[in-house]
Amino acid sequence: MIEQTADIIKQALSLENPDTAIILGSGLNGFATTLERAKSIAYKDIPDFPQSTVSGHKGELIRGFLGNKEILCLNGRFHLYEGHEPSVIAKVIHILKELGVKRLIVTNAAGSLQTTLSPGALMLISDHINFSGKNPLVGANDDNYGPRFPSMNKAYTLKLRQKCKEIAQKLQIELNEGVYLMVLGPNFETSAEVRAFGKLGADAVGMSTVPEVIAAAHCSMEVLGISVITNYAAGLVDNTPSHQETLEEADKASARLTTLLTEFIKEED
């Protein structure tokens, strides 16, 4: 079914050679509006494709161009807390692989675990901690995509991170770098959990991204990850995190993220 779904998408979007795909996180769909010659298809119109049900995730696959670079944009992602099986997320990555994607850019909204990392900040993901208890590679391995026991020590491609930092500096966009920790959700973390996550070495926490990255690394895709810090996690300050706050802060940072990603894609080989 993966090959058949890929063929349907290719025909529906008139795909030529999209070697880069971007997954947009909560409230970060502003990037999609900057694409030229855009053509889209709703997830619900793609046979055997998962659906996104969370506010701030439109649920559409877009083909567009930035200059002469053709890209695919997943405007809305799939979270395990929605009830999706982890293997479903691997399947989406496999479909992208069948479409010719070699580079995956993942974005998300995340809570800060450090008082020095304030809401509105952009954080380049250098590594992750999978605290969700779930893995998209569980089950029979398909050797056509990758090995049974893939390494994750270089999941976030160093050369892409270095290039992104150079572009951020050129554009005078402040870009932090840190470790992202994934929890299953959908509840926000307790103050005790937040203290524990900080001691584990994490800088930001969220409910997504890691399954896609694991599946992409398994497929030998290059990966770049960026978190938009939308709130302080519970206990760092006197606050009560909410999804509304997440969307509002993501919207404020969306312009800077769009500028950074646009320049990164245009300059990337």
Describe this structure in words.
The protein has six helices and nine strands, in the order H-E-E-E-E-H-E-E-H-E-H-E-H-E-H. Helix 3 (158-171) links the parallel strand 6 (122-130) and strand 7. The mean pLDDT is 92. Helix content is 30%, strand content 25%. The two termini are 31 Å apart. Helix 2 (86-98) packs across helix 5 (210-218) and helix 3 packs across helix 6 (243-267). Strands 5-8-7-6-9 form a five-stranded mixed beta barrel. The longest helix is centred in the last third of the chain and has 25 residues, at 243-267. It has helices at 2-13, 86-98, 158-171, 191-199, 210-218, 243-267; strands at 20-24, 36-42, 60-66, 69-75, 103-112, 122-130, 176-182, 204-206, 222-232. With 269 residues, it is of the alpha/beta class.
Distance between the termini: 31 Å
Largest sheet: 5 strands, mixed, barrel
- Beta percentage is 15-25%
General shape: globular
What class, by secondary structure content?
alpha/beta
The helical percent reads: 25-40%
Radius of gyration: 17 Å
